[in-house]
Amino acid sequence: MKFYCHPRCSTCKKAQTWLDDHEVSYEFINLLETTPSKETWVSILEKTDRSLKSYFNTSGGVCRENNLKDKLPDMTLEEAAEWLSSNGMVVKRPFAIEGNQHTSGFKETEYETIWKNGE
């Protein structure tokens, strides 16, 4: 699993602790230095039943400065993928992906369902 997060984010730290406690192996990727590519985002967004908003850190500074929350309803998948790949601060974190599975943000119940190894 690729685990994209901001090293100082408290939600990311909670998710990382959960992964460690449940012995889920992952590759830690600093979201400020590396974001998933535009092509990866397009692929994710084309296949998901989630809203575009669920992938954006709409309360973060970059989203607020660019008024992305208001632009999201009219945004194309290509435009959304461009924003998400251009700046890690735009991405709702942590973002974890492996194969066709992914999570955005940290909800323990979602992690239990998607990432928990057969304990």
What is the name of the CATH architecture of the largest domain? Answer: 3-Layer(aba) Sandwich
Number of helices: 6
- Could you give me the name of the CATH homologous superfamily of the largest domain? Glutaredoxin
Number of strands: 4
Shape: globular
Q: What is the arithmetic mean of pLDDT?
A: 94
Radius of gyration: 14 Å
Beta-strand residue fraction: 5-15%
- What is the CATH third-level topology name of the largest domain? Glutaredoxin
Uncertain runs are none
Can you tell me the number of structural domains? 2
The termini sit apart by 18 Å
**Biggest sheet descriptor:** 4 strands, mixed
Order of helices and strands: EHEHHHHEEH
Helix share bin: 40-55%
**Class by alpha and beta content:** alpha+beta
Question: Strand order, biggest sheet?
Answer: 2-1-3-4
Give the class-level CATH name of the largest domain: Alpha Beta
